[in-house]
Design brief:
By secondary structure, the protein is mainly β. It has a domain of about 120 residues: Beta Barrel (Lipocalin). The protein contains no helices and 15 strands.
Length: about 240
Amino acid sequence: MRYESGYPITGSLTAGNGAFYVGNTEGTLAKFTADDRFGQIEWEYRTGHTITAPALVVGDRVFVVNESGEIDAIEDATGEAAWEIEGLEVKRALAVSGNLLFSVSIANELIAQEVTSGSQMGRTIPLPLAEPIINPISDRVYLVMEDGKLECLRPVGASLPTLVAPPQTTEPDEEQAPASSPPSTPKSSANPFDTPSGGTNPFDTAPAGGNPFGGGDGNAADPFGGGAGGADPFGNDPFGGGN
């Protein structure tokens, strides 16, 4: 599909809930689906300032940050604002862990907000962050530090990750029975070297038990043997002297 935003798009494309979300420099976040080659715009949400960071899509909420540091929560089903918070100087929304939304500020502070209302619940000192990691899948918050260290934050007592939205599974279609093939004509089991009609085996022994390669007189004489009297059929030694 093709989406004409009317303004430049600068690296804010993300995906979730079977749709795509993209922001532009005019400050509009658009949700569109791509169920077919034409696609469909579901809604457009205007923040009023340039959007460069990818939105965070978690369950039925979409969290978007613009360059003024404002962070908004959007109802994914309708595209309406759930809340809008200014003044936190948010740079990017990272993850939802329990009932808290975690984001990173322009000064690399980690900010915790209550998901339902957006109220700030906590804020760290500036951290030596190298790159924030968006995690829309589980309740873990991942931080990459400038010294190469990767840190994972989790709710107290949660030793294993909890998926924010459990993966959806679909039942496979029932297998259809293969179409029946037309009955085939059974091949003849006759032995081509079996006795032909008439009962005579062409490779059987000669009549009266004679050698099939025997002499023509029906006796078991060597066909390469001598003539009458058993004489050598090649006569005297071909290299010897005559008699």
